[in-house]
Amino acid sequence: MKRITSVKELEKIRKKLVGQRNPDRVMVTVCGGTGCHAYGCQKVAEAFRKELKQAGNNVDFRLTGCHGFCEMGPLVVIRPAMTFYKRVQVEDVPRIVKETIQEGRILEDLQYESPTTQEKFLKEHDVPFYSRQNRLIFGMNGIIDPTSIEDYIAAGGYDALAKVLTGMKPEEVIEEVKASGLRGRGGGGFPTGVKWESCRKAHGNKHYVICNADEGDPGAYMDRSLLEGNPHCVLEGMIIGAYAIGSDEGYIYVRNEYPLAVKNAGMAIKAAEEWGFLGPDILGSGMKFKVNINRGGGAFICGESTALMASLEGRVGEPRAKHIHTVESGLRDEPTDLNNVETWANVPLIINKGAPWYAKIGTEGSKGTKIFSLVGKVNNTGLVEVPMGVTLREIIFDIGGGIRGGKKFKAVQTGGPSGGCLPESLLDLPVDFDQLAKAGSMMGSGGMIVMDETTCMVDVAKYFLRFLMEESCGKCTSCREGIKRMHEVLSRITEGSGRDGDIELLEELGEVVADASLCALGGTAPNPVLSTIRYFRSEYESHIKDNKCPAGVCKALITYNISDEFCTGCHVCFRNCPVDAITGKPKETHVIDQNKCIKCGMCYEVCKFDAVQIK
Q1: Which residues are within 8 A (CB) of 541 and not within 5 positions of it... i.e. 6 or more apart?
Q2: Which of 230, 329, 433, 540 has the most C-beta neighbours closer than 10 Å?
Q3: What is the mean pLDDT of residues 527-537?
Q4: How many other C-beta atoms are found inside a 10 Å radius of the C-beta of residue 610?
Q5: Which has the higher per-residue pLDDT, 455 or 614?
Q6: Helices (DSSP H) in 370-476: which residue ranges?
Q7: Helix 477-494 to helix 502-516 angle, to the nearest 10 degrees?
Q8: Is the pTM for the entire model greater than 0.85?
Q9: Residue 415 and residue 431: Cα distance in Å, rounded?
Q10: What is the mean pLDDT of residues 555-578?
Q11: Is pLDDT above 70 for 1?
Q12: Which of 200, 207, 168 lies closest to 288, judged by CA?
């Protein structure tokens, strides 16, 4: 491909590419996100290519990025009718080609069925998981081939860059981003335009731009899926940011555990260099910019700005004190702008649509949409993009389809391992940066873990504190020792050795850790503990005062017994006990030997008569 040397040439090529695409032509799209790869989407894609070739159909095919509905993969959408099939297997492909594409018949067994109403849905946009979303950033993932720059250009890609380079000064770009109200999507929520302005004004020999794709939160994979499915929109945002702050070099810092994201981002950079969007004299504007990929080793702390930059420099990933901001002295002590994947992906949209349009979406203090990773005890798991200000109830029950197995909602943790756990009474809380912070949680990068009545909140706090304890870099005493002490207290409580005053001790320790730590890991680490004490204090008291775990999770505090009233002697628990702790003859009441019982819960799980009870 010959480098594009002007905006006019770009428009000419775009028109040519668009002209080669017929919007009314049938196109089969298969989700190619990491989740669907685990389900075998590559084999499904190959089967489609083979079947369509043999059938001689006038049908296009795309292996796209993640469609978001990971629970139902592999996903297939047939455009333009938007026919939506879930959990498609290789053996389903010939039927889809023959019956749906050629004969226009619907395969009911592949339709999505609501787990609560049993209603079936044919069109993708009618499926409740999708119908209540506003997929401004994530929508293109289901349309384009992430390895094809032609697909991105035909869909309007690099139009925002052309607009900036031909008609906007760097200061005007910054003002547009400021006016949009875009706040960083990596967790801190700092106004993006203000950060860019500070970086541009900072004195230095060189300015850097960095995309943070480290994303270490358990259960969070928004950035990974964006970088996998639409890497060019992230690159375009970075190039625009580089123009605005006066940078000629940038980095994508991505976890090495994200091989598909690394691969697709690398291919996008190479294609952008060949086509003239990276390198010297971009689109004939005189601007030069190059992007490098740096693969992180998986340290959670390297998601923090200064630790990330230390890692980029080849040093140990440890944070530094914030009395000097990275926009003034960051990578190699030069002015550096760091934004996460989702933040960069918003930039082309703002430039194309305009700040006033963008600012109308969301709430007063939180503009635009946000992509959340909805996981846990919820029927529909996956990635959801909603306007800021939507309630937790809408996300969990309308989009997520409610709690699995008809169980009762108990809590949702937002913001990753350092986020807070919010109870049922806050389900109608609008989700934005400020409201979540007031409630004792945070937006974070967008993780959202749903919990049901079988969840022990003390155990949950202990789990996340253990994660943070292991991921702490250990540089500051308050974080290194404080989190460890808090985890020890929580462990003691869940093991039946809780003491009077432990709750107050946890609160005191949490306050010290939050106030005295260098970076956001330590500063927010107490959130899981403090929020569960705030909203679920009675569970802590039950563990300490009554030696009981209300949810039946903490093994040291529970005992399994078999009820004389309900036991039918079916012998199922007897056959499934791994340590032969259950005795009893068929059709007679069984008994559990407490000295042998390892409290694995197998008998409780397999009993169909509710005879096995937790005390």
Answers
A1: 503
A2: 230
A3: 96
A4: 11
A5: 455
A6: 392-393, 433-438, 457-471
A7: 160
A8: yes
A9: 11
A10: 93
A11: no
A12: 207
